[in-house]
Write a structure and sequence with these properties.
The complex is a heterodimer of chains A (about 300) and B (about 325). Chain A is an all-alpha fold. Chain A is built from 15 helices and no strands. The two termini of chain A are about 20 Å apart. Chain B is built from 13 helices and no strands. In chain B, helix 8 crosses helix 10 and helix 10 runs antiparallel to helix 13. The radius of gyration of chain B is 26 Å and the shape is globular. The relative contact order of chain B is 0.11. At the A-B interface, helix 1, helix 3, helix 4, helix 6 and helix 7 of A face helix 1, helix 2, helix 4, helix 5 and helix 6 of B.
């Protein structure tokens, strides 16, 4: 909140004394704080349980572990990392998410630039068609793509997931980058024209550097989407190459096969959250900008 | 290093370094080829060559498969014969399949209602406290994690053990404090209760999304306008109804369509939390279910039904989008 808006709000409150103002605002604070607690409790519960021994977790609720403090340990984490195949799956998740982010962002940058700055017939119609593809459910593409990949031997391989994610991510990526590139100042490109710069130079030297905020937002968005994805990996890697599966599928299968009874589930689930949480905490600003840029103008 | 890991790293290096290099190379090559063309022709050809990679991906990974799936939904199990609407008749005639449609209907109504409603409420209220950004981060956080992780988190919330033993699930523990429960969440088929529970988990994930976008739009409303109304004697409710609500409406419409699509596409959470049991299946789950039963024909029909359900939402979104373009 800016100081200015706080100032006007104080002015409307008038000269009320600090205490009565605080009392009047008590329900407001209570509401916000209760809301924050409700939102945090599920994650805190999982977090606490991930450090408890299986016996403790099965015999009492996680909240009893805090008062009085129970013996907590990293044993569950050590176990899932060493024994449950979580460590290679962590690597797989990275190997899936990084190319699945880099390829669509680059392809979309070319297309966004063309849509924003080149003139050609049917430009708006084609752009609308691309936006329209935004809501094609992934589900409608699975069966034909599996058939298409089979003769190539791609099912079960990372490349199937990379290419599929690229296709699925493109409509939003083109939409976002075209909108952002369209707002770039015309004068910059015109003076480059006068200097005799070609389209490739204008793209790599001007348009791309100026689009970095949007590209950062998009890359974070796409990375989280592909890192968190269960469905695409489940379909294209599936059971044919269990050693290529990402963490999401591994943890989901752990729930399915043990009916949630695995003692190490909490630790395994928390490990899948580490990367998204780091990305979120450090790059939240860009992430939010990407979301709001996609839905509201400005 | 084991050979599998080496192969994977080589693959990744190819995709992270090789593919971008190839794409940059493609653009440079395109410009070289264009130079060879007559000047008059260059601006006509150039856009299509820049768009080619994107259009190729969209054609191969979205358009072609969608057409194929539609065709497949009219064929028999082996894909050898045309069977008309048989797969659709199965869907609407089969209790389990039809119940997934009903459940998806509940998702489509409740998820946007809860997320947009709560998102609006929170956006307007946290605007009045100084720790707004912290509060918003907390609400927004679950969006960053996977539905799989969210499923496990809420598994521990919903955990149920037979009465008499200590309840280790958070919700049943809390109910126990009030002498109520325990409730067997996601354990027994009960009138739509389980589906509503899953929707609440999804709302926990997505309310932050609605809140962040509504909040951005809310902050875009001129403070002078709001102050002027207050000075003129309007109370907070009147200010909200006369100014805030109408100005936020277009934004909320867009989020509502996004949430409807999210609700229709829901698969992960159902797969992780119940595996479609206890009357919680939805159409996106049913589609995968039929596919794993080896019924590509039925699976395709369910996918087409999902697509048909999304088309009106898509039409609305495109109209909304064109309206924005007109303002631009």
């Amino acid at each position: 909140m800016t100081a200015a808006t706080e100032g006007t709000r104080l002015a409307t409150v008038g000269q009320a004394s600090g205490v009565s103002r605080w009392l009047r605002r008590l329900p407001l604070h209570a509401f916000v704080i209760v809301l924050m607690i409700i939102w945090l409790i599920p994650t805190i519960g999982l977090f606490v349980n991930s450090f408890r021994t299986p016996q403790d977790a099965a015999s009492s609720g996680w909240w009893t572990a805090l008062f009085p403090p129970e013996a907590l340990s990293f044993d569950n984490y050590a176990y899932v990392l060493n024994r449950q195949g979580i460590a290679p799956a962590f690597l797989n998740s990275l190997l899936i998410a990084i190319p699945s982010t880099v390829i669509p962002v680059m392809v979309a940058a070319f297309a966004g630039y063309a849509f924003a700055w080149m003139k050609f017939p049917l430009r708006n119609v084609l752009f609308l068609a691309v936006v329209g593809l935004l809501v094609v459910p992934l589900q409608t593409t699975f069966i034909p793509l599996l058939q298409l990949f089979r003769p190539l031997g791609w099912n079960g391989e990372f490349i199937a997931v990379w290419l599929a994610h690229t296709g699925y991510g493109l409509p939003f990526a083109v939409y976002l980058l075209r909108n952002f590139m369209g707002e770039l100042p015309r004068e910059v490109f015109e003076s480059a024209d006068i200097d005799g710069a070609g389209w490739a130079t204008k793209f790599f030297r001007l348009a791309l550097p100026m689009t970095i905020p949007a590209i950062a937002a998009l890359a974070i968005f796409q990375f989280l989407f592909t890192w968190n994805d269960l469905l695409v990996a489940f379909v294209f890697i599936g059971a044919s190459r269990p050693d290529n599966l990402p963490m999401t599928v591994l943890v989901a299968n752990l729930v399915q096969s043990t009916g949630g009874g695995s003692q190490y589930l909490a630790a395994a689930a928390f490990l899948t959250m580490v990367v998204p949480l780091i990305v979120f905490l450090f790059l939240q600003r860009y992430f939010v900008r990407g979301l709001t840029g996609g839905a509201v103008k400005g | 290093m084991d050979p599998r890991l080496t192969a994977a790293l080589v693959n990744a290096a190819v995709a992270v370094v090789g593919v971008p290099a190839a794409l940059v190379g493609y653009i440079l090559l395109v410009e070289q080829i264009l130079k060879a063309l007559p000047d008059r022709l260059q601006p006509r050809v150039r856009p299509w060559l820049w768009l080619l990679p994107a259009f190729a991906f969209l054609a191969v990974f979205l358009i072609y498969p969608t057409i194929q799936t539609i065709a497949r939904s009219f064929q028999n199990r082996a894909g050898t014969e045309f069977v008309g609407l048989a797969n659709y008749e199965w869907f609407f005639g089969n209790n389990d399949a039809f119940s997934s449609l009903i459940n998806s209907g509940i998702w489509v109504v409740l998820l946007p209602l809860i997320t947009v409603g709560l998102g609006l409420l929170i956006a307007v209220i946290v605007d009045r406290v100084r720790y707004e950004s912290t509060a918003k981060s907390v609400i927004f956080l679950p969006l960053a994690i996977s539905a799989t992780a969210a499923g496990v988190i809420w598994f521990f919330m919903f955990l149920w053990v037979p009465p008499g033993q200590p309840q280790v699930g958070t919700l049943n523990g809390a109910l126990g404090v009030f002498g109520a429960g325990p409730l067997a969440f996601l354990q027994v088929s009960d009138w739509k209760f389980n589906t509503v529970m899953l929707i609440l988990v999804m709302a926990w994930m997505w309310t932050g999304f609605a809140m962040v976008i509504i909040s951005a739009a809310y902050k875009g409303i001129s403070r002078e306008l709001l102050e002027a109304a207050r000075v003129d004697g309007a109370n907070e409710v009147q200010v909200f109804r006369a100014i805030v609500w109408p100005l936020l409406l277009p934004t909320m419409a867009v989020i509502t369509t996004t949430m409807i699509i999210t609700a229709l596409k829901t698969f992960d959470l159902v797969y992780v939390m119940t595996g479609g049991q206890f009357d919680t299946s939805v159409i996106a789950f049913e589609m995968i279910q039929q596919f794993s039963f080896g019924r590509a024909d039925r699976s395709a029909a369910v996918a087409v039904i999902l697509f048909l359900a999304i088309i009106p939402v898509m039409a609305f979104q495109i109209r909304q989008f064109r309206r924005q373009e007109a303002i631009r």
